[in-house]
Write a structure and sequence with these properties.
Length: 242
């Protein structure tokens, strides 16, 4: 894969902000050929330390609500300032994805990289908690850590070197996710599949000195990567008349 947009920002300094496999590259592949209109108002849901929000504002020209539960919005504001992004280009928001504080139909689109599995496994989540904030016809682009083929009844030992079975409950294959999002009455499925990005984004993560990266090395160095992938989900909110 080539990543002409995110390669510019995948510097050692900025990569200290990643919280998992390089989210800028995952997002860039996720949004290849995307259908989000120019100048859209976009929610970056579970934005972490803001790298993907920065990319959405700088390289795609969207107005971005950088929304996250665990990360400090003031730190993210400082980062956006350092990157030359104004308060009208990126707006950091501390919020729980299950109780979003926005006006109904506020967003033209939602983009979510490496976080939806924390709150979106509930089949009712889309209709009850997220779609109300998306305008009719608006798009949702999601990528999450996934499995090539679900094997939770017989997890390979390589996976269990770094992760518990409970942690693996958040990791599923594309068919599993298709069944979850199919439950929505208000979204049509545009695509569910897998990204090509895997080895490269993992390699950048495993080089980090962070505790979770060091712990993830045990499984990945034992070959667990062959069971894993990144699942891509693209949805479009139906119109009320549909
Ligand atoms: C693995 S980190 C990824 C962060 C970022 N997207 C990235 O790739 O660098 C997962 C993120 O999901 C966010 N998250 C988890 N549960 C959430 C919730 N209920 N509402 C909003 N954000 C949530 C966390 O705050 C965390 O920043």
């Amino acid at each position: 894969m080539n990543y002409p947009l995110s390669e510019k920002y995948s510097t050692p300094d900025l990569l200290t902000k990643i919280m998992g496999p390089n989210p800028m590259k995952l997002q860039e592949e996720l949004l290849t050929g995307h259908l989000i209109p120019e100048k859209s108002v976009v929610c970056d849901l579970g934005c972490g330390q803001g790298l993907t929000s920065m990319l959405l504002a700088k390289e795609y020209g969207f107005t971005v609500y950088a929304t996250d539960l665990w990360c400090d919005p003031e730190n993210n504001r400082r980062f956006f300032d350092e990157m030359g992004l104004s308060e009208t280009q990126v707006i950091p928001v501390k919020a729980d994805a299950t109780a979003l504080p926005f006006e109904k139909e506020f967003f033209d689109a939602v983009v979510s990289t490496d976080s939806y599995n924390f709150f979106g496994l509930d089949p009712d989540y889309l209709d009850q908690k997220l779609l109300p904030f998306v305008r009719e016809g608006g798009y949702i682009y999601i990528t999450i850590p996934g499995m090539k083929k679900d094997c939770h009844d017989n997890l390979p030992p390589e996976l269990l070197l770094s992760w518990t079975p409970e942690q693996m409950d958040y990791v599923h294959d594309a068919d599993y996710w298709r069944a979850i999002v199919s439950h929505s009455r208000n979204a049509e499925i545009v695509e569910v599949g897998e990204l090509k990005s895997n080895e490269e984004v993992w390699a950048e993560w495993l080089k980090q000195a962070k505790k979770y990266a060091v712990s993830d090395r045990k499984s990945m160095e034992a070959g667990a990567g062959k069971y894993l992938n990144f699942v891509k989900i693209v949805l479009r909110k139906k119109s009320a008349q549909a």
